Amino acid sequence: MKKIILIISIITICSLFGQAQQMNSFTLYPLNRYVQNPAAAGTKPYLFISTSFSRYWSGINGAPEIQAMSAHSLLSQRTAIGFNLLNENTGLSGKTGAEFSYAYHLPISSGGTKLSFGLSALVSQYKMFTEKFVVDNIDDELIKNSENSIIVPDAAFGMSLYQENKFFVDFSIRQLLGRSVNFVNPENLENKQIRHYSLGLGCLLSINENIEIEPSALLKASEAMVVQADLGARAIFNKSISIGCYYRTNDGIFPFIGYDTKNIMFAYSYGVLMGDVANYSTGSHEIMLILKLNYSKSNLE
Which domains does the chain have, with CATH numbers? Predict the structure, then answer.
């Protein structure tokens, strides 16, 4: 019986990298578009540094947790670099990864509109925590013949049409290389990364000198024809206090609050889950801290 449970556990872990949405979802994505699109590197007039912590499905043992840190900055008026570090734990498995990006920004109008192109090189370590499995025989052939850790290189590409503090249209493709992530013999169970496509839209609307509205949308689709959309908006009061809400299809509703100054921003989101998981979880949480260093508007002019 325990061997059957072990087999099911390994298949479940491998399915995380199978034919579904393999990419992480960040509720506060509009505050840090770089996590979705390498072309967003350098779209801010300062050194942008972000740290975040996400806990999904609180109350469920082994529920996913993600810690992430990213930074990007212009090198010149047209070139930029960025990096992203990520650590994910899903109970019986995990992933640690690093991403390094280069972006080129091409001015296309005198009003400040630019078109940027970004390319990322990534490397990820996928891990399976077999020591957490409960089995009668630790020398079970299924464990002995499986890999506990796999290093997988990858790449991502993105484009962005944007004007700072006005609007953005983002498009990106991730998991370009389609690499295999096989913990067990691929003859028995082959798992392959599949390409993920995303289209992000957003704009900043001024209601009056004290109130702004920022609607945004993110459409994600995989080659396995799994589609998910994030839709929502935030209201910004006196350019400092943000209150908003996002809806993610087949997932939940995510209200959030934020506080912004010239050099720092803090945001928190709570997820009200939908579907069967809502019967077992108290919700999801995401916290983000953003630092804005060496602020100089002339960087983008």
Answer: 2-300 (2.40.160.40)
